[in-house]
Amino acid sequence: MWNAHQRPVFGIQSGQKKAILTTVNKTALKQQIITHLTQGLELYYNASRASRAEATHEQNKAENKYDTRGLEASYLARGQSRQAAETEKDIQQFEKLAVRDFGPTDPIDVGAVVELENKEGRNVYFIGPRAGGTEVVFEGTEITVITPQSPLGQQLVGKKAGSKVQLHADVRSQFRIHSVA
């Protein structure tokens, strides 16, 4: 089944109200997120090294005041290095994250897996300390990492299963918190 945004909605059959994730091995989920971030970190390192080499290569010396190839490559290398540093911080925060289970009456906080439901389908989120927007497929379900500082995270933190959240002004963006694990 697909929702309106052409994303697969896992574990849902017509008329079925069962939670997608009734139990979650959060240690394994956390490790999968760390692995995903580590793979991204390697890409940033490789891209940064390549850009740095390009910036300092003798063929990219400026031939005139308008020739900025070397300068542009150095800016790119600096940006990729910054992104790598941010990803390193993300990994460190996830490694420090203590996993715990949340029950239906527990308020949502960092470390919770939250399943939101509306008329168009369900989405699953992991409230992480950093790395918002990271997406992983865990046990056949797409899970997006959000932070407590994100607009959605701000609405979810402190709420419980059964509560409602409104993402935008339009009615289709109203969700019910189906489950918290």
What features would you describe in this structure?
The protein has 181 residues and is of the alpha+beta class. It has two domains: 31-96; 99-180, Chitinase A, domain 3 (Roll). The chain contains three helices and six strands; from the N terminus they run H-H-E-E-E-E-H-E-E. The protein has a six-stranded mixed β-sheet with strand order 3-4-2-1-6-5. The longest helix has 31 residues, at 26-56. The radius of gyration is 21 Å and the shape is elongated. The model is unreliable at 1-17 (pLDDT under 50).
Outline the fold blueprint.
Blueprint: H1 26-56, H2 69-96, E1 113-118, E2 121-127, E3 135-138, E4 141-146, H3 151-156, E5 164-166, E6 174-180
Parallel strand pairs: 2-4
Antiparallel strand pairs: 1-2, 1-6, 3-4, 5-6
What is the N-to-C order of secondary-structure elements (H for helix, E for strand)? HHEEEEHEE
Number of domains: 2
Cα(first) to Cα(last) distance is: 23 Å
* Strands ordered across the widest β-sheet: 3-4-2-1-6-5
CATH topology of the largest domain: Chitinase A, domain 3
User: What structural class do the secondary elements suggest?
Assistant: alpha+beta
Kindly report the name of the CATH homologous superfamily of the largest domain: Transcription elongation factor, GreA/GreB, C-terminal domain
The chain-level mean pLDDT equals 82
Could you give the count of β-strands? Answer: 6
Low-confidence stretches: 1-17
Major beta-sheet overview: 6 strands, mixed
Report strand %. Answer: 15-25%
In the CATH hierarchy, what is the class of the largest domain?
Alpha Beta
Shape field: elongated
Percent of residues in helical segments?
Answer: 25-40%
